[in-house]
Amino acid sequence: MSQEKAHGERRYRIATIDGDGIGPEVCQSTVAVLREACGSSLLDFEMHEGGAGRYTRTGEVLPRSTEDACRAADAILHGAAGLPGVTYADGTEVGNDLHLMLRSRLDLYANVRPIKLYPGVNGPLKNWSPGQIDYVIVRENTEGLYASRGAGVNLRGEVVTDSLVMTRKGVERVARFSFALSRQRRGARRDGKHRLTVCDKANILRSYAFFRAVTTEVAGDFPDVELDYAYADAITVHMLRKPDFYDVIVAENMFGDIISDLGAGTIGGLGMAPSGELGDRHGLFQGAHGSAPDIAGQDAANPFATILSGVMMLQWLAQTHGDDRLHKAADRVESAVTRVLEAGAWLPRDIGGTARCSEVTQAVCRALK
Ligand code: IPM
Ligand code: MN
Q: What is the tally of structural domains in the chain?
């Protein structure tokens, strides 16, 4: 029996949290596109609340019912969360906890952030065209410096510390994930080589030297993937000067957060940057951008990052369940996005156009027909 037949009846439950700011707009856009691509028989979107807005109403940023729904679902789709004014007494933002709690509670240890320049997007790197910038940053998502969130020490307002945490298990699994991801890809654009670049500051801190050493041990199981090292400061220059050299880059949580925004800058900005946060059992998909409250509710947001995160969600579900219908849908959405961008008539404001979020959405849906 073909896989298509085997999965003929299978539907997938998508826990959907639209969140704050532009979150609802980009989320609705993506749901519309995925419905258009998949018809009504493949995905069930279930809406759940969470984020800073919800916190101001009930005191919960991640309600229990939302967490349970995320656990039970086949995948999680998220818009964006966070509002600058909604903070804890220590000054940190509440909204981020939606994400941070899901990352740790669902053990979403690999944050996959593709850096891909699409045709029609006028990136800031003048000498590079689509097809030349196409690599992936894997950000370790459960340890590193951010593991100290809410656990740092503030002594009498005079001395403050946050600790960088790494475990052998945590580094090993994200390294293994990254090598395996390189194996699945077609290699660096420059030379077609499967390559994993370890981004760290192994020259300065023991934790980063450990990250590098453990990843190097894991490399023994992947002799077909070239191992490369780059310091986190230097890689910010390399990513601008030789983006075609990269295939997969793996980095500690905070470094991965920072360099993935830099990478996004090279392909049109955060509005073009999707992300998929994966564990062994769960996957959460959202744009790499924040909730942009300054443009919320104006139909001005760029939905491409979330739509492309939706593509990643379809690909991950397809792979996890061996369901070819989802592979096909993912390819169709990515090709529709590519054609809309290439046509140039429906570019959102942040990438130099004038199209509204709803117009971009309609254009992608038309391209899917
Ligand atoms: C990201 C964001 C997050 C982070 C927030 C939303 C928790 O900047 O996903 O990159 O700091 O990791
Ligand atoms: Mn970030």
A: 2
Between the CA of 289 and the centroid of ligand 2 the distance, in Å, is 7
pLDDT tens, 119-161? 999 999 999 999 999 999 999 999 999 999 888 999 999 999 9
Q: What's 246's domain CATH number?
A: 3.40.718.10
With tokens 């933002």, the residue in question is 93
| Same structural domain, 145 and 239 | yes
Q: What percentage of the chain reaches a pLDDT higher than 70? A: 98
Residue 163 belongs to a domain = yes
Distance (Å) from CA 148 to ligand 2 centroid: 16
pLDDT at residue 254 is higher than 90: yes
Nearest to 262 by CA among 290, 245, 240: 240
Q: Which run of H or E residues covers position 167?
A: none
In this predicted structure, the answer to whether residue 265 has a pLDDT above a threshold of 60 is yes
Domain that holds residue 160: 124-266
**What mean pLDDT do residues 95-123 have?**
96
Active site residue 146: yes
Rounded alpha-carbon distances, angstroms, from residue 145 to 56, 103, 119, 232: 28, 14, 36, 14
Concerning whether 12 is annotated as a catalytic residue, the answer is: no
Tell me the pLDDT tens digit for each residue of 286-324.
999 999 999 999 999 999 999 999 999 999 999 999 999
Task: Please name the residues in contact with 181: beta carbons below 8 A apart, sequence gap of 6 or more.
Answer: 112, 136, 138, 248
- Is residue 4, in this structure, part of any structural domain at all? no
- Does residue 159 sit within a domain? yes
Catalytic residue among 233, 242, 280, 294: 233
